């Protein structure tokens, strides 16, 4: 491809980014890399874009990263906090008006937190009052258009109203389902149906979803079925289960991961609390052409069982089971598969 053809390709990608923000994620990295390969100056790229498309294009320097927290206060009043990440050590709070005034082509949402009560993650930021109608009709469509593929949605409030509000937010890559460890006195206990319905909706409508983290979630067959459904619909996902809570990585999940690796070569990363035993892993049948290596390492506080499955033309599938010593039977076990 000639320098001129590359230039036209870059401009076309930038034009698509500007006019199709929901689908721009696939083109933005390529446009940035190609622009750099051509050693085009910022002014040259901007002029080329103006000449061919009538609009100036974005550069990596223009992109600004934002985090948003949303919660419901008293008397049906909703609030949010918006912060901009300047670098790894500096975040700056901004107002809602300032946020909406920024050229949306440069706005990227990197994480969204849905919580109960005032979000303390950025205590210096003043809460901004917003209406429920504004949240549904304006902010969530904005999030759908501007969220990065790696954006993480963390939900720690599971009332039916929260779920109804955020059901339409379906453009992000990582989902963290987080339940509080201690219920406030007189608080209504979590209804698992809410989180299960929310995850089912995301699996159906969110094509970006490739990572799920479960914290303090109760174990249910429905939730396990949903995760298996997600595994079938994605080439590769990441599942993390916190050691708190009742949900565990089961042999059903491990067998599904093994089957996908054997049939497609895709590896799914799984780590977290489990009820699996080393005997169950050893008893897994080996299909023709698959070999397995096992190694046991005794430590002072835990025993580690390492398994490596190998087949021709695909990367190895690795599994590590750590069994803590002194724990009741079935407890103190963590599993990592990658």
How much of the sequence lies in strands comes to 25-35%
Considering DSSP H and I runs of 4 or more, what fraction of the residues is helical?
25-40%
SSE arrangement, N to C: HHHEEEHEEHEHEHEHEHEHEEEE
Q: Give the N-to-C terminal Cα separation.
A: 38 Å
**Rg of Cα set:** 23 Å
Task: Walk me through what this model shows.
This protein is of the alpha/beta class and 338 residues long. Helix content is 33%, strand content 28%. The protein has helices at 3-19, 28-37, 42-53, 96-101, 132-146, 160-166, 192-205, 221-233, 251-264, 278-282; strands at residues 64-72, 78-87, 90-94, 107-116, 128-130, 147-155, 174-178, 211-215, 238-241, 269-273, 291-298, 302-310, 317-324, 333-337. Strands 1, 2, 3, 4, 5, 6, 7, 8, 9, 10, 11, 12, 13 and 14 form a 14-stranded mixed beta sheet that branches. The radius of gyration is 23 Å and the shape is elongated. It starts with a helix and ends with a strand. Residues 1-42 and 44-56 have low confidence and may be disordered.
